[in-house]
């Protein structure tokens, strides 16, 4: 039996001291089921669901647990029923695991599948990306195109997919629109800025004051400090000054939202009549109060969004291979340094882009 290293925890943390529970263990290298591929993991990326998993909240995930939804690597073995992936292929995970046969799945909405699970978060025991070798169904991997590295692909796996689905799949952005990207320094925010620019939109992005210059370097047309009490007034002032060649009333057309909390009502005030806010998270609080007048009087569209389709990940990867979208990588850690990496993600201080873990050579 061949053995590999894996980052494992057997219990939940109650105080976010990840070093107490994260251990490097030796476990058997998996064998592929008939529909699966085995991947030698070259790079994996951190997500906030790693922290939820270690807390056991909001879901009591399976124990013992290996986290890691975003993994990129080389295929080393395939099952007997695998048709389109071969040994030696460079692949990245599509972490949205669905039944593939229900009405939602066969309608191209696998993100709405009632049996959907997030690989590396809800799966297990011992089934995620923070290990030397992992296994996935053929349908849950995407070939990495030429010109995209393992690091770039791992960083993009969930966050690029999420951002693409929010803006393209759900909000259906159009050239010439004014897009407000909240939290532009985050992983999803980084990609949100680039996707909006790819579609010919004007981008206003927000972040803490020390990260505003980086938003502009990434392609944002304007950058605003959302920690200011009246940040929304600055956004409104900017939007009014942007020329609208089609004669539309100046204002924000689409808001890319994953912050929630006290920002919610301020965001609603910024939208044009018939504008759209698309949300995929609530990092500052989910219990937001809503002034309904903004919604019904202006005919605002509120869209929820989560994950995305395998095809959308392939679309995003294509544009990465064309140099139109890039992964912003903040830092890289080893498996042994995982507790430091997760603490950095939790605190967020100075963080810009994605954090990676390298399981081995």
Summarize the helix and strand pattern as letters: EEEHEEEHEEEHHEHEHEHEHEHEHEHE
CATH-derived topology of the largest domain: Quinone Oxidoreductase, Chain A, domain 1
Mean pLDDT: 93
State the end-to-end CA separation: 21 Å
- The number of helices is 11
Shape: globular
Quickly list its features.
single chain; 11 helices; alpha/beta; Quinone Oxidoreductase, Chain A, domain 1; 25% strand; 361 residues; Rossmann fold; 6-stranded parallel sheet; globular; 7-stranded mixed sheet
Overview of the structural elements:
The protein is globular. It is of the alpha/beta class. The protein folds into two domains: 3-157 and 327-358, Medium-chain alcohol dehydrogenases, catalytic domain (Quinone Oxidoreductase, Chain A, domain 1); 161-304, 3-Layer(aba) Sandwich (Rossmann fold). The chain is 27% helix and 25% strand. The protein is built from eleven helices and 17 strands. Helix 4 (159-170) packs across helix 5.
